[in-house]
From TrEMBL:
Domain CN hydrolase: residue ranges: 6-265
Domain of life: Bacteria
Protein name: Acyltransferase
Gene3D superfamilies named in the record: Carbon-nitrogen hydrolase (3.60.110.10)
Single GO BP term: putrescine biosynthetic process from arginine
Presence of the UniProt keyword Glycoprotein in the record: no
The organism's taxonomic lineage, starting at the top: Bacteria, Pseudomonadati, Bacteroidota, Flavobacteriia, Flavobacteriales
CDD domains: CPA
InterPro entries: Aliph_Amidase/BUP (IPR050345), C-N_Hydrolase (IPR003010), C-N_Hydrolase_sf (IPR036526)
PANTHER family: BETA-UREIDOPROPIONASE (PTHR43674:SF2), NITRILASE C965.09-RELATED (PTHR43674)
One Gene Ontology term of the molecular function aspect: acyltransferase activity
Key words, A-Z: Acyltransferase, Hydrolase, Transferase
Length: 296
């Protein structure tokens, strides 16, 4: 029988360093999370480098790695050693001219349980991701691992209820969101509270609407590497929420932390029985959702 309870973890880090150092750092923190009982462990988006999408610079493509190279080898060995599932977000070089913002889901035996490629790609000031990333072509997935069935979505995906819904309908018990989101320093005073609140609220809404656990791992720290700019202040606040949107664990805005919470599938089933949102969906009336706009 599959386990009805298992522990998940998100790791919140400052990753404003070179790839080799970030890899060593993340390996150390994953070990710490596993020693605290974590069974499925999530790292932040693009773990191996600073957030390079603040500019459009072809030199940054050198940060990408082919499938099953450095990151996969290191974390595959670690997952097998520790007997845990590790979700590893990385910059994928698929071929010359095609790059993805991706994540491995590595199972407890070190094998690849799944691969996700970020579907929604933003283009905002200092979040120039369309310059670097081809939209994902693997779709939304529920990945079976030896610990549980999980779904991985990446950062900008978190604003889209359709992504969460499809992933949950496919059977994901937890939606994992590796993230790199922060404030433009000059905007923080005026807009910061609402921006952060919206980020929290939309993902808690996914938890409620789908009766799933939600876990988000963000960065912290000011990453300012382009002359004449103020950089991005990553706001941290990583969290794990239960299927009614309840916060089970919450990190600070400015400290490196490990969060751990328990996924209870009996609780999830009870919530869905009492709030049967899936049962009452009017799928016969949803055809227009596939249109870009509904013109009058």
């Amino acid at each position: 029988m599959p386990k009805r309870k298992y522990k998940i973890s998100v790791i919140q880090l400052n990753l404003n360093d070179v790839a080799e150092n970030n890899l060593k750092k993340c390996i150390s923190w994953v070990r710490d999370a596993a020693s605290q009982g974590a069974e499925v462990i999530l790292l932040p988006e693009l773990y191996s480098s600073h957030y390079f999408c603040q500019s459009e610079d072809v030199d940054n493509f050198a940060l990408a790695e082919p499938l099953y190279s450095t990151s996969f080898i290191a974390f595959s060995e670690l997952a097998k050693e520790l007997g845990v599932v590790i979700i590893v977000p990385f910059f994928e070089k698929r071929m010359a001219g095609i790059y993805h913002n991706s994540a491995y889901i590595i199972d407890t035996d070190g094998t690849e349980a799944g691969l996700y490629r970020k579907m929604h790609i933003p283009d905002d000031p200092h979040f120039y991701e369309k310059f670097y990333f081809t939209p994902g072509d693997l779709g939304f997935q529920a990945i079976e691992t030896k610990k549980g069935t999980v779904g991985t979505l990446i950062c900008w995906d978190q604003w889209y209820p359709e992504a969460a819904r499809i992933t949950a309908l496919k059977g994901a018990e937890v939606l994992f969101y590796p993230t790199a989101i922060g404030w433009h320093p000059k905007e923080k005073e005026q807009y910061g509270e609402n921006q952060y609140g919206a980020w929290m609220n939309v993902m808690k809404g996914h938890a409620v609407a789908n009766g799933v656990f939600v876990a988000a791992a963000n960065r912290i720290g000011l990453e300012k590497y382009i002359e004449g700019t103020e950089g991005i202040q990553f706001w941290g606040a990583s969290f794990i929420a239960g299927p009614q949107g309840e916060i089970l664990a919450q990190a600070s805005h400015d400290k490196e932390e490990i969060l751990i919470a328990e996924v209870d599938l009996d609780l999830q089933e009870n919530v869905r029985q009492n709030w049967p949102f899936f049962r009452d969906r009017r799928i016969d009336a949803f055809g227009d959702i596939t249109k870009r706009a509904i013109d009058k």
